[in-house]
Structure formats: C-alpha cells, structure tokens
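Q: Give me the 3D complex with IPE.
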Amino acid sequence: MLLVKFGGSVLTDKDRLRTPRPAAIRRLAAEAAAVRGPLLVVHGAGSFGHILAARHRLNEGGTAPARRAAAARVQADVRELDRLVVEALNRAGLSAVPIPPAAVLVLDDGNVSTVDVTGFLEFSSMGFTPVTFGDVVRDRRRGISICSGDLMMLELARAFRPDRAVFAADVDGLFTADPKRRKSARLLETVGPKDFRDALSGRRVVGTRIVRGP
Ligand code: IPE
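A: Here is the predicted complex, encoded as structure tokens.
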C-alpha cells in the first residue's frame, strides 16, 4: 500500500484565498492513478484552509458564534477543494471516496483522542481509493480544532503500515533551511531520527520528501 499526501502548497496558491491550481491537481491525480496497488490519498488545505483558520484562530477552539461561523466556512471550503481533488482522481481512472476527518476523528487538546479507520479499510478492500484531508474537527477540550493532513498521514500510517508514505510539497525534498529563502540550503538525501532531533534543537530541516513506511 502507498500512502500519499498532496500538500496544499502544490494544490493551491497559498497566498490567495480559495485559489486552486487545476493543472497541479490534474498532474498529481494522473501520477496517483499510475500507482499499482492500493493507495490512500491525503491532501492539505492550502488557501482553502490556512488563511481563514489563522485569521479566526480556529486552533484555539471555542464555539462562540463568530468562531463557529468561521469553522463552518473553513469546513465548507476544504470540502470544495476535496471535491476538485476527488473529481480529478476519478477522471484519471481511480474510484475515489472522500472520508472527512470531522466524521471519523476527535482530538483532545490537539492530540488524537479517537479515530475510526474502518471506512478507509473497507472502501480500500473493495478497490476504492479513500481520500481524506486537513479539516476542522471536534476537540474534547477546545471545542473545535484543526486536524492537519499530516496528522491524518500519521494515523493512517499507524493503522495501515504502508510500504511508503510520500509527501508531495512545493519544495524538492528536505533541506537544512528554507530553499526558497536561502541559497545555502542543502538537500538532505536521507533523514533519520537524529536530523529531527537537530531540527527540534534549533537546526532547521524544512520541506518534505519521502518517509519510508514503518
Ligand atoms: C490544514 O491541513 C487544515 C486546515 C487549515 C483546515 P494541512 O496543514 O495538512 O494543509 P497544507 O498541506 O499545509 O496546506
């Protein structure tokens, strides 16, 4: 099994609210359709999620009317992007089925409290391609919170133990610094636990490439 995340930075113009990149969506869908064997697709939100989520601080939770309205708006927006992705996957020859995190996962202060992967398992075993995405979800402590596509990658990797987890981003791999800002940024061919420890201790590692399955 292959687990793949289409980053929101690739699918959308991250600086312009709700602006998809149709050619990039088509290209990634065609590449996904060329994969042999079962596939799980996760995608980010890009400008369909991050801009309003940050503006309304959705990650802080709360269910006051203004925040609730913003949460509903972002939920609707990420589903609009998901529709574009699912449509592209279907046109490319897959049978894609959207499974929104809000329906299957609950957080507790940002950490996963419960998740039900039965739908992924059962649709996948029938030959469908489950598709999930970064979403606004319930959070036991905060009321609502953001579940990123990366968190869904982690949960699905834990549950399905794929051969590989692939992250498609707008940079060509993991770098020692942001390659868009620093010419001195160096591509890391392989990354192990030590690199992440370094990253956490201040040396930055940015971008994402391929993470081998467990
Ligand atoms: C973000 O998901 C979800 C929302 C803001 C609702 P991701 O964090 O996985 O999205 P990208 O890939 O960075 O755009």
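A quick observation: The chain has two domains: 2-170, 171-214.
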